[in-house]
Amino acid sequence: MPSTVVSSADGRRITAVDSDDPAGRLVARLTARTSAGMACIELSGELTRATSGALIELTRGQLGKAGTNLRIHLGRVTYVDARGLAALVVTARMAAGSEAAIAFVQPSPTARRLLELGGLLDLCEPNSRRPA
Known about the structure:
This protein is of the alpha/beta class.
């Protein structure tokens, strides 16, 4: 699925739109914020081949300035393909490599299934590990 990725000047917001759709259908939105040593990234929409690079890029930027904790909110994720799952694995490895604690927060049923398949379910907050 072709996509155009638009990043904000401050590097905290990334929006992906379908470049083949005349209406410019929104594919995904990734938003990051950092405060008190905690980085939070919120994903909504699709985590696919077209958007996985944006997640990795945003994670890299947040880990560089966040300190020790990273929370990735997955509650509004509607679809994850194999590349999206690979991006979640890479994100977890990046956090481990920078000695940051990572937590996947409130995953949607779709995201939760993929976290389970990818062996990442143990990185979910305890109340997020149970099926919705």
